[in-house]
Write a structure and sequence with these properties.
Elements lengths: L3 E7 L9 H9 L3 E2 L2 E8 L6 H12 L3 E8 L5 E4 L1 E3 L2 E2 L11 E3 L8 E3 L4 H10 L4 E4 L6 H9 L6 E8 L4 H17 L13
Helix pairs in contact: 1-5, 2-4, 3-5
Bound molecules: pyroglutamic acid.
Length: 199
């Protein structure tokens, strides 16, 4: 059996008809990349369900790399998240009608958790293909950040989160994710170049 790369996306939320993150995860399911089998799955946009669903997917697939995807409609291009915070502050209700405010993702967990993916190298690999990509230092305070924080507590060698701008359709997302995963497999150490921000 080939080792696995697990890619998750989300179902539509906030009244949207579609979510390219979940559609891209479906597109990628079953592909082979760099000697690994890609498994794609769609998470519910529900605070009370998404972390447990992710945990059971990780248990089932034992991936070498976990890349969670989510839509950030106001952004453009690919945003590789560097840090998850242990805070939920929902601006809108989730798909179960819950809108938690100022509660931790994990009361026993760390205040923040850094990705273990080489996000600078992954963003650079996309840019080398002419795709718009950058490193981001906030994954928000909604279900994506919750899932990212939960992902970093799971027993996966390398895990992280990629936010997708509203300009990307599912095919564009899948194309970028393929490049990103190949770069992650090829890169043991992240680039030392700065991707820092002042704002
Ligand atoms: N984006 C939301 C949750 C699901 C998704 O695709 C977020 O950024 O939190």
């Amino acid at each position: 059996m080939r080792p696995t790369l697990l890619v998750t996306g989300f179902e539509p939320f906030g009244g949207d008809a579609a979510n390219p993150s979940g559609d891209a995860a479906r597109l990628l399911d079953g592909e082979t990349l760099g000697g690994h089998t890609v498994r794609g799955a769609v998470l519910p946009c529900v605070f009370a369900e998404a972390p447990a669903r992710l945990r059971s997917l990780v248990q089932a697939h034992q991936p070498a790399v976990l890349l969670c995807l989510g839509l950030a409609a106001s952004r453009r291009g690919f945003h590789f998240e560097r840090v998850a915070i242990n805070l939920i502050d929902a601006r809108i209700a989730d798909n179960a009608g819950a809108q938690p405010v100022d509660v931790p993702v994990d009361p026993a967990g760390p205040a923040a958790a850094f990705t273990t993916l080489p996000v600078k190298a992954m963003a650079a690999a996309l840019r080398a293909q002419g795709l718009p990509a950058e490193v981001s230092y906030t994954a928000g305070t909604y279900v994506c950040n919750q899932v990212f924080h939960a992902a970093m507590a799971l027993p996966v060698p390398r895990a992280g989160f990629l936010h997708l701008g509203g300009d990307l359709d599912a095919a564009a997302v899948a194309a970028g994710v393929r490049v990103a995963l190949v770069a992650a497999l090829a890169c043991a150490e992240d680039l030392a170049a700065s991707a820092g921000r002042i704002d």
